[in-house]
Amino acid sequence: ARGLLTFMSEPYIPFAATGINVTGLVVQLLEERLLDHRLVAVADRRLLQGARQQQQAEASGKEYFLFFDEEMVVEGVADMHAYYTELYLRFGELWKTAPPSSGMPVKTIMDFPPLWKEFQGGVRQELRARLE
Questions:
Q1: Contacts of 131 (CB under 8 A, 6+ apart)
Q2: SS3 of 27, please?
Q3: CB of 34 within 8 A of CB of 128?
Q4: Does residue 1 have a pLDDT over 60?
Q5: Burial label, 107 (beta-carbon count in 10 A; 0-12, 13-18, 19+)
Q6: Per-residue confidence band for 30, with pLDDT thresholds at 50, 70 and 90
Q7: Are 14 and 109 spatial neighbours (Cβ–Cβ below 8 Å)?
Q8: How far apart are CA 87 and CA 129, in angstroms?
Q9: Which of 34, 46, 111, 113 could lock 29 by a disulfide, CB 3.0 to 4.6 Å apart?
Q10: Any long-range contacts for 120-123 (C-beta under 8 Å, 24+ apart)?
Q11: How would you classify residue 61: left for phi > 0, otherwise alpha for psi between -120 and 50, otherwise beta?
Q12: DSSP readout, 39-88?
């Protein structure tokens, strides 16, 4: 977290606007089902772990019930947090390296909309390519 704050304080990065927009983007990507592969991977890991536990229980003569549980939900939420952080840092890197577009010598808040549009388009393109 400290590294993120240090990174985002150089020279001017719209910290709050980025957070709000990344949150909205993640929600949209979930609604568009473009992040299903991440959640399915979490479910697969949990179910494989559960299957191993079931085999161990059966080998020792115990019963084990394999089902979706709270831990799976917690892991899914943790994965979405990690993805949020990844997107936030990727946009921050784009912000740092892109030249000002508003005719000013440094970037201002007016540079945010075109960069954000470019960024979210790229993210969607990456995710859609993954589905093909």
A1: 34, 37
A2: helix
A3: yes
A4: no
A5: buried
A6: very high
A7: yes
A8: 17
A9: 34
A10: 120/21, 120/25, 123/25, 123/29, 123/87
A11: left
A12: HHHHHHHHHHHHHHHHHHHHHTT--------HHHHHHHHHHHHHHHHHHH
In total, the chain counts a number of residues equal to 132
Q: How far apart are CA 86 and CA 60, in angstroms?
A: 43
User: Residue 114: how many CB atoms within 10 A of its CB?
Assistant: 12
Cα separation, 65 vs 77, whole angstroms: 23
Q: What is the pLDDT of residue 4?
A: 62
In this structure, are residues 28 and 35 in contact, taking their beta carbons and an 8 Å threshold?
A: no
What would the two tokens of residue 24 be?
A: 């909205």
* Nearest 10 degrees: Cα torsion 21, 95, 2, 71: 40
The helix (H) or strand (E) run that includes residue 31 is helix 15-31
Q: Give the separation between CA 120 and CA 123, rounded to whole angstroms.
A: 5
Q: pTM of the entire structure?
A: 0.78
